[in-house]
Amino acid sequence: MIRFVLLSAWIGLLVVASHWMGQEAYRWFPVQASNAAPLVDDLFSLETAIGTFVFLGVLSVLLWVLLFNRAEKYDQEDGPPMEGNTRLEIVWTVIPLVIVMAIAVVSIRVNRELGVLGPMEHVHGGELIEAMDHGPGASAAGSGSLQVDVIARQWSWEFRYPGAQVSATELHLPLDVPVTFKLTSPDVLHGFYVPAFRLKQDVVPGRAIDFSLTPTRSGRYRLRDSQFSGAWFAANQADVVVESPEAFGSWLEAASHQPLQPGLSVAADEAERLARQPAGGIRWATVPPAPPPLVNVPGSNSLPHDA
Amino acid sequence: MTVLTPTSPSPSPPKSSPPTWLRYFSFCTDAKVIGIQYVVLSFVFFLIGGFLAMVMRGELLTPAADLVDRTVYNGLYTMHGTIMLFLFTFPVLNGFNNLLIPVMIGAPDMAFPRLNALAFWMFPVFGLVLIASFFVPGGPASAGWWSYPPISVQNPLGHLINGESLWILAVALSGISSILGALNFVTTILRMRAPGMGLFRMPIFCWTALAAQTIQLIGLPALTGGAVMLLLDLTVGTTFYDPTGGGDPVLYQHFFWFYSHPAVYVIILPVFGIFSELFPVYARKPLFGYPFVAIASFVIVGLGLIVWVHHMFPSGVSQWMRDLFMVTTMLIAVPTGVKVFAWLGTLWGGKLKLTTPMLFALGGLINFVFAGITGIMLATVPIDIHVNNTYFVVGHFHYVIYGAAVMGIFAAIYHWFPKFTGRMPYEGLGKLHCLLTFVGANLNFLPMHPLGLMGMPRRVSSYDPEFAFWNVLASLGAFLLGVSIIPFLLNMVSSVVRGEPAGANPWRAIGLEWLLPSPPPIENFEDHVPTVISAPYGYGTGKPLVEHQGEIELALALLEGRA
Question: Are A31 and A217 in contact (CB under 8 A)?
Fold first, then answer.
């Protein structure tokens, strides 16, 4: 009886600790800046809680045997010859099965929800990029949404607003307005990854990939190349500015009057600096960076960002 | 059996004609020599791969790319991964297969000793090819160990011999060597077991080796085919993976992961085998639920072959594929859980002896459970979309490979060292090594998880300043891991030279290998293979493992002059 009470108390303690860990998990993420982010964070919190319980449970058993089942130094006896227990085997096959399948069902439901919100990509497989190019003003998701063409290069990001004939190396998005990106790459694989949006999509040369999301928080965020793309992969980042639709409108308007100028490319800058320096240290072969794209607004990639 | 062995068994005991150390540098067909060749050479590459990791963690101490050039960083991380997998983990486990399978099943040698030696001698060849690629113009391969096209076929200098082509050559040779090895191990296990040793009386290590080598036979041809097409794209301008010529870069990813995900099970299954061997010895209890543990390995093989797309969730695969492969991936938790619970059941109520190998195995088990939990998180599509290709993944698989597999490998080395050298390793140095490894690995790899959740991509030579804190911790952990190798090497060298004589069975373990002298003679039991009469791990049951066990043990004691 006393053992049952103690065991129940211990399990209760683990449940409390696991729940606390699950809540704590939200703080490990960057700010939530898209409508997908809460869904992802909730799922992660749930799995953190379950995982913590499993981990602490296993650890408790190990701690117990380490404390109470150690052989004395000169004890040469064997332990009790328990060879197995079929009922236990069934229990610890079925319980994990139920847990992981429950997680899978919840995850598939979240997948569906994300699919409705838009962040799951639609691939135009096999079609040539040229064939996908549509005229100014075209919008995949109909009225009330924004279309942005994203071109990932070795090593720069270029954002084109086909409706307004504007291009930039800093991505501006209006708050709470659905946006559809058309992701293309002329060279190698890249990854379109904005941690604050919890969204990632590889950019595959030879395909145009449509990809939608809705920003839900104003601020300045980082877009990072997430699929290794060569020498300046780490520097292939851009800023994403989410602002009110009014501010976005005036930015777009002002941008359309700007003349074309070289956009941001850390890679191009560094390569130029390296070319001027006398060779020092080991340097291995790389393709040269593409020239910075000509854009209306270079923007910045050195201002403080929220995530 | 004599048909299968190249030389007839020598009638004189091996102690009267001590073979020279030169045989370790020869085309020797003795599985025990080949095993030691594999293990020692793989640790040479382990040191090289570890050194590359130290330089990388040095670079990542600060946000800017300031220690080495970015191109050099990319080459270093590519070669670190390649060396650690193809030149350390696979070969060291093949070394264990060679050392352990014949003695555990009572075979005199491998089924195909010459093939075995050939498979080994390909290892220094492709090792040399890979290391040589550091010195070709343009430097080594630097597209990551996945070598995804189009980046891997960019070939900026346009030479025919370049880092990438040597890399592909080395990987293909390694694949051929592994296929030869797999044929040998599978045949040996299936055909050369001692009389009375049915499959369900076979030690679990042999079960896991059989399961792992089955994966090699099924999966490696896919990787090799994919690699050949990559080599053709790179050198003669075919367009298998080039969209401008009608190819598809994502196709390569399928070929690659069709093998390279199951490859993780090629690594971890034998480590599960090591855990299953060690826990009964040091808990003095039978393995809990032996038949379930044995079967679980093959359930893992079956499932492991249908999960590869979980590496490609953001690559442009359709939604139904994402859902399907998420479910198959999560199912792997079930047979894996059966094993983990079986180990806990084995330890429960036992009489634990916390020797160095036991401590390594316990540490490896803890790290593995942690890695399993983050593995479920990574299988979850919406979470994976966020953390894929971030440091979360790097943290996860280093918990698997270093935290669990390398700790299991060290456990095995300390456990079977006396058997194959005849001498005991030092416990003090061993425990120090274990402590440094466990603390170092956790300090190195735990901080990678918050980094990934925060959104730090993997494979970067520079990063934003907000990631600095956890990176400094990770680097300190990495340097601690570097330090942890010193007591290990010290222990190995000094124990071989002047460790205490081990005797046949220093751990009082049950198993055919412990009924042989340490080190075992060239042909193991020769013509006197004992007949197995009980299940393995009969601790506390009082049942002998083989017929005439008392006489065999007495003869061993006489041989050691302790009777």
Answer: yes
Q: Which CATH superfamily, name and number, covers B267-288+299-501?
A: Cytochrome c oxidase-like, subunit I domain (1.20.210.10)
Residue among A51, A76, A83 minimizing CB distance to B373: A51
A-chain CB neighbours of B347 within 8 Å are 61-62, 65, 69
Residue carrying the six token digits 């010193």 = B486
CB distance A204–B250 less than 8 Å? yes
Query: Which residues of chain A make contact with B144, given a CB cutoff of 8 A?
Result: 228
Least CB-CB distance to A69: which of B323, B327, B352? Answer: B352
CA–CA distance, A203 with B194 (Å, rounded to integer): 56
Rounded distance between C-alpha atoms, residue B559 and residue B491, angstroms: 27
Extract the tokens encoding B425: 């390793």
A202 and B289 within 8 Å at the Cβ level: the answer is no
How many angstroms separate the CA of residue B222 from the nearest CA in chain A? 22
The nearest CA of chain A is from the CA of B246 a distance in Å of 8
| Residue of B162, B374, B457 lying closest to A226 (CB–CB) | B457
B276, B320, B386, best to mutate vs chain A, most A CBs in 10 Å: B386
At residue A240, the 3 state secondary structure works out as strand
pLDDT digits (tens, 9 = 90+) for B109-126: 999 999 999 999 999 999
Per the CB < 8 A criterion, the answer to whether B530 and B524 are in contact is: no
Asked if B138 and A121 come within 8 Å (Cβ–Cβ), the reply is no
- Find out whether B318 and A35 touch, Cβ atoms under 8 Å: no
Which CA distances in Å does A93 have to B177, B333, B365, B371? 37, 9, 19, 19
State whether ipTM is beyond 0.90. yes
Question: Does the distance separating the beta carbons of B459 and A233 come in below 8 Å?
Answer: yes
pLDDT digits (tens, 9 = 90+) for A98-120: 999 999 999 999 988 887 665 55
CA dist B153 to B162, B240, B387, Å? 10, 11, 27
- Across the interface, do B380 and A47 touch by the CB < 8 Å criterion? yes
Nearest to B166 by CA among B79, B251, B277: B79
Closest CB from B319, B453, B535 relative to A120 = B319
Angle, helices B319-331/B356-379, rounded to nearest 10 degrees: 160
Question: CB-based contacts of B299: which residues, under 8 Å, 6+ apart?
Answer: B334, B335
Q: List the domain boundaries for chain A.
A: 7-62+91-117, 125-277+287-295
Q: What's the full length of chain A, in residues?
A: 307
Pick from B351, B382, B464: which is nearest to A114 by CB? B382
Fold of B34-260: Cytochrome C Oxidase; Chain A (1.20.210)
Using the CB atoms, write b or e for A106-119: b if 16+ within 10 Å.
bbbebbeebeebbb
Closest residue, chain A, to B347 (C-alpha): A65
Cβ contact, residue pair A228, B330, below 8 Å? no
Q: How far apart are CA B229 and CA A98, in angstroms?
A: 42
- pLDDT tens digits along B337-388: 999 999 999 999 999 999 999 999 999 999 999 999 999 999 999 999 999 9
Nearest CB neighbour to B148, from listed A39, A62, A189: A189
Per-residue pLDDT tens for A47-65? 999 999 999 999 999 999 9
Interatomic CA distance for residues B457 and B388, integer angstroms: 8
Alpha carbon of B342: minimum distance to chain A alpha carbons (Å) = 8
For residue A138, is pLDDT > 70?
no
Pick the CATH number of A125-277+287-295 from 2.40.50.100, 2.60.40.420, 3.40.50.1970, 3.40.50.2300: 2.60.40.420
Alpha-carbon distance B31 to nearest alpha carbon in chain A (angstroms): 33
Tell me whether strands A156-161 and A166-168 are parallel, antiparallel or unpaired. Answer: antiparallel
Annotated domain spans of chain B:
34-260, 267-288+299-501
